[in-house]
Structures are given as structure tokens and as C-alpha cells.
Amino acid sequence: MAILQASENRVFKFLQVNLGRVCSRDEIAQALWGQGWTQKYSDWMIDTLVYRLRHKIPANYAIKTCRNQGYALNKKGYQLEGSDPSNSVLKPVPGIQATEQYLNYMNNPANIRQGLTDLFKAAAGFKKYCRGRLLVINSYSFDNVDAVKAWPGEVVFIHHDERALDLHRRRAEELGLKHVSVCYDDIRQSRLADKTFNLVINDFRLNFNLTHRQNQQMMAQTRRVLKPGGAVLLSVVYGQRKRWFEGAEHLPRPCFPKSDYEKLFVNAGFKIVREFDREEGERWAKTIAVKTGWEPTFTRYLLK
């Protein structure tokens, strides 16, 4: 086994004592930082430490991510306990939760999807903003990692769904991308530091919020973590009024009127620099009109 740092050793021993049991982030934090853990708590640090441990512990051990619950150390011959999300002691994260069907669809390259590659292609005229530290909010498709292989700076994928984090972490490892990392974080109540990112990408994530209040929280926190002079690339599905839409992914999601979203951006302190790719959104709308009986559409914005 590789030599462990003191912090790694504390967490590994704690997981060994609790072999096969799902350990919450709070429990891991207490094992790591002791009595003052609430003042030192950092999701980023816990994710990074677990990532390092996975590469250092013996091959007969494996650290399993248990969605919205924590981590568990498994060993050949042992069974994980309490890994059923229905038994979680944590409150569910507000908003639309991705189904396994949705995850499978979004991670099958043969399916027609809108991903970061499509967004970057549509935003080809905004290359001056595509630099520096990049934040990608709540991506569900592993091949979005492929889209940032050549990004000239650090890339951070955040999500509150452990399944999505695992998908992106594994892909970054497969591609050997040292500039890409993942972090457990809900942007609506983000723990990310102020003025950290040059560009933030929010690709249809507003459509996973159930209420306008959740949209307001998302945009306010996005503004807070953006560096002065930074920009936001944002895609959103909208309708004539608040309605539900469902695409080929078979996941019903809400959308609000376009004017509501634009007012949301302005009230959060953003300037709408450009609206773009609306024609593509209209073409996409025709593919799901049969399912919904009406035609929602999507558009994209560059915000500053």
C-alpha cells in the first residue's frame, strides 16, 4: 500500500473500523478534524481526500460512493449495509431528481442529446470568455468531461448527486485529465468561495428547479462565485407559461416563460450580452411536441 498522509490515515482507519457500513460526510469530517470539525468542514476536502485514498489503498479494498449518504469501505467477502437511498437519514435535495432511465439515456453517446460539445459549438463566437477557471453545474453526462479536455485552465464539475460525480470522476481518470476535478456541492446553497471562477456553465440546470425561488438561489450563488469580469453560459427550456415538458430522456421537468428567466437574470445582477442558438432550440422543440402536446423550446444566453 502507498504511504498515506496523516489525514488520509485517519479517514482510512475510521472506514476500516466501520467496514461495510455507509459513513456520512459528517462522520468522516469528525474523524478527520476532531472536535472542531464544524468550523473546518469542507466538502471539497473530503472529496479530494477520498479521491486520493482510492488510488492508495490495497487492491482488495474499494471505497463506494452511496448517493446522498456518504462513503463506505468495502472488502472482498463483505456486503455493504444501508446503501439503499430510501433508508437515508438525509433530507432529499429539493428539485427534480434524475431517474436511472434518465442517467442511462444521457450517458449513451448513441442518443440525441444536448451537451457541452453542442454548447461550445454554438458559443464559438465567444472564445474570449472560454479561458481561466471553469465551473460546470450539475452535469449528468460523462462525455461532458471529454468536451473540456483542452480547456486552458482548471475545470470543476459540481453536483449534489453522487452518481453524477462518480461518472465524471471516472471519466477524468480514464482520460488522465489532471486539470479536471469534481466536488459535491448544491449551487443553490453553495460552499464555493466568492469570486472564484472566470466562466460558469449552467446547461439546462434551471429546469431541474421546481420553484422560482430555487431559480433565484441558483442565480444569486452563481453571481457570488463569479470573478469580476467573468461570464455565464446558460441554456434553458422555456414555454408560454409554467408548464412541464418531457423529452426522449423520459424525465418530466418544469419550465417558465422566457420573460421570467430574463427578469431572473437581471434581478440577480447580470447583463444579458447575447441570446443565441434559438433556431436549434426550435428544431429540438418539434421532436418532443408529440409527447407534450405543445412545443417548448430552448435558448442560450451569454451573461456578464
TrEMBL record:
Q: Extract the InterPro entries matched here.
A: Methyltransf_25 (IPR041698), OmpR/PhoB-type_DNA-bd (IPR001867), SAM-dependent_MTases_sf (IPR029063), Sig_transdc_resp-reg_C-effctor (IPR016032), WH-like_DNA-bd_sf (IPR036388)
- One MF annotation (Gene Ontology) recorded for this entry: DNA binding
Pfam families (UniProt xref): Methyltransf_25, Trans_reg_C
Per its UniProt record, what SUPFAM superfamilies does this chain match?
C-terminal effector domain of the bipartite response regulators, S-adenosyl-L-methionine-dependent methyltransferases
Q: Which residues form the OmpR/PhoB-type domain?
A: 1-75
Q: Name one GO biological process term.
A: phosphorelay signal transduction system
Feature: DNA-binding region: 1-75
Q: Which UniProt keywords apply?
A: DNA-binding
Please report the name of this protein according to its UniProt entry.
OmpR/PhoB-type domain-containing protein
Source species of the chain? Candidatus Beckwithbacteria bacterium CG1_02_47_37
